[in-house]
Amino acid sequence: MILSDKDIFDYVKSKRIIIEPFNPDNVGPCSYDVTLGDEFIVYNDEVYDLEKELGYKRIKIKNSILVCPLNYNLTEEKEEYFKEKYNVDYVFEGGVLGTTNEYIELPNDICAQYQGRSSLGRVFLTSHQTAGWIDAGFKGKITLEIVAFDRPVILYVNQRIGQLIFSKLLSPADIGYSERKSSKYAYQKTVMPSLIYKDKQRD
Length: 203
Hints:
Layout: H1 5-13, E1 18-20, E2 32-35, E3 39-43, E4 56-60, E5 64-68, H2 76-86, E6 90-93, E7 96-105, E8 110-116, H3 118-121, E9 125-126, E10 133-134, E11 139-148, E12 153-156, E13 160-168
Parallel strand pairs: 5-6
Antiparallel strand pairs: 1-7, 2-13, 3-4, 5-12, 7-11, 8-10, 8-13, 9-11
């Protein structure tokens, strides 16, 4: 069962679902809009070796970023041109990890799904790849996998970037996501890189 706007207000008011900060204007008929935070991660490894900790750098911005498609052939000259013309804080090429401003806590009988906004899809920008599922019992901010597919796109801090759709389980999970010892992203307060290297290694 998907929660309606009435259900979302009820769950938030009773603190069965935590959304901080919570903006009532962001409640839709059956979803809640989340906004883009100011912290990002870009990887700097030549190859993603998933059995090793990946190299990356964290970036904090004040206003906006420009995301270029993969193989855009971004040069230093183009980067400086974009920064000067569009007054953006940072220019990326390829995928970049972001985060929501919102910190959420789900009870063990509620799961959620993150979906990018259709308005961003119409300019061929995605804010999640395959990781839109949020398990019951999750506590933390949502990491976003942002990719532009057509041409450069400017994104602004605090703009609505996607939405959460909440569903009620037939029965609560015995062990919620953040209660599991194997959960790698519980209680994350900022954008997090892939921690797949912490999985049990193959024999």
